[in-house]
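tool_call: predict_structure(chain=1)
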Amino acid sequence: MQVTLRELKQTFGLQQTLDPTFFAEWSETHEALSEAEQQLLDRVKTNFVELMEDPPMLENSVKMVVLAPLLDLAGFYHKPFRIETETSVDVELEDEGRVIRGRIDVLVLKNRLWLLVIESKRSDFAVTRAIPQALADMLGKPEIAQPTFGMITNGNEFLFLKATRQPKAEYANSRLFSLVNPNNELWVVLQVLRRLGEEAIAPELNDGEFCKN
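tool_result:
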């Protein structure tokens, strides 16, 4: 059963906020990438574009071609991060009378950073369809008092989310990044991922737990 935004409003009292200061992490000035990082991300985009010329993409192409290099460059394969693969969630899309089924694989990094990867034979399976599921996962652990962050991607599009439960249940999203845009927006996606990674481990750094790992 798919989660809806209406159900999240009823369960958590969740509301979308338009306050630009609520989720400033994605739009603020970020640390510049090195030339080597820029070149690598340019190759990632080129590889993805070439795969798009001969659809349909294989189920795991998104993770192999796009997500794996991003996670590596963001430093998410190293402590204090720990990647855990959650249970997949089925999603459906109506297209000219046909039902197209996709799947969302959820990766959890340090509990406060969630990456949702949409896998489908349709590369245009919109990331916006995964917003309710992403928010449900981000809000599903009441013991986490700090804000949680998420990224949804289908390999072509990237959307970032921030959600809180205290003092009230709110969420906001970034603008939609896409590889079809003229510039390579993977540069900014990586910068935002690193920024959110810093936010995800900030409470541990304050508590001195980072030194224990």
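agent: The longest strand covers residues 98-109. Proceeding to next step.
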